[in-house]
Design brief:
Layout: E1 7-12, E2 15-20, H1 31-45, E3 52-56, E4 61-63, H2 76-82, H3 86-92, E5 98-102, E6 105-107, H4 109-116, E7 119-123, E8 127-129, H5 143-151, H6 153-162, E9 166-167, H7 168-173, E10 179-181, H8 186-198, H9 202-214, H10 220-233, H11 238-249
Parallel strand pairs: 2-3, 3-5, 4-6, 5-7, 6-8, 7-10
Antiparallel strand pairs: 1-2, 8-9
Helix pairs in contact: 1-3, 5-6, 9-10
Length: 258
């Protein structure tokens, strides 16, 4: 079900899987791919039949970084007008939960794209890093901010200032990755988790995701206020009535997403 040049899109039940598909260049994130990816994710986000999204690459690479050939000769003014990171801001606003299934290289922009996802499942072969310093630049799509929030100042500084890659196991211990599994199971495990999320009440899932993300850019007081408002808002949903009735009646709820 894919009309994209650089993506493979598939769907099973309420779960959509989006695979980056530039294998010859280790899924390097050029502008064309990023434009397709943002358009695809926004379309899925508007589809009531999609309740969770899995974002993946292939066994060799989730994404090995940005396409350096597109930037090597650019000037500062050209980069300013290109405004390539505006696409990344749109990914951050996707309301449907996104689970990253990561194998092989997730470097530079690949690491930043992975960190835009809500949950990360990595294979034992995953190699994660922000090696931009090795080519004379630094992370520009959120790497310095999201990585530091996930793993702390010390490890983030080391990775950003030296370009050192970490394994999936090290990333999990540092709190960046949720789970590490053998390479033959990483996509299956991400899809299993996506199905579990897709079985929950869709409105509550979206509002809960919003509340968790709000904790990153506000004070605890404002975050708690935002959480309470979303909690109260769910009492206007049909799913809340169904969920509580099903609990009292000891039966499985039937969610309508309303």
């Amino acid at each position: 079900m894919s009309d994209y040049k650089n993506l493979i899109l598939s769907r099973e039940g309420f779960v959509a899987t989006v695979a980056l598909n530039r294998p010859k260049v280790l899924n390097a994130l050029n502008l064309e791919l990023m434009t397709e990816l943002v358009d695809c994710l926004e379309a899925l986000d508007q589809n009531a039949g999609v309740r969770a999204i899995v974002l993946t690459g292939n066994e060799r690479a989730f994404a090995a970084g940005a396409d350096i050939k597109e930037m090597a000769d650019a000037t500062a003014v050209e980069m300013l007008y290109r405004d390539q990171f505006a696409r990344w801001d749109r990914i951050r606003k996707i309301k449907t939960p996104i689970i990253a299934a990561v194998s092989g290289f997730a470097l530079g922009g690949g690491c930043e794209l992975m960190m835009h996802c809500d949950i990360i499942i990595a294979s034992e072969t995953a190699r994660i890093g922000q090696p931009e310093i090795l080519i004379g630049v630094m992370p520009g799509a959120g790497g310095t901010q999201r990585l530091t929030r996930a793993v702390g100042k010390g490890l983030a500084m080391e990775m950003v200032l030296t370009g050192r890659q970490i394994t999936g196991e090290e990333a999990m211990k540092a709190g960046l990755v949720n789970k590490v599994v053998p390479v033959e199971f990483y996509l299956e495990e991400a899809q299993r988790l996506a199905r579990t999320i897709a079985e929950q009440p869709p409105v509550a899932v979206r509002l809960a995701k919003e509340a968790v993300l709000k904790s990153f850019d506000t004070t605890i007081e404002m975050g708690l206020e935002y959480e309470r408002k979303n909690f109260y808002l769910l009492f206007a949903s049909e799913d809340m009535r169904e969920g509580m009735a099903a609990f009292i009646e000891k039966r499985k709820p039937e969610w309508k997403g309303k």
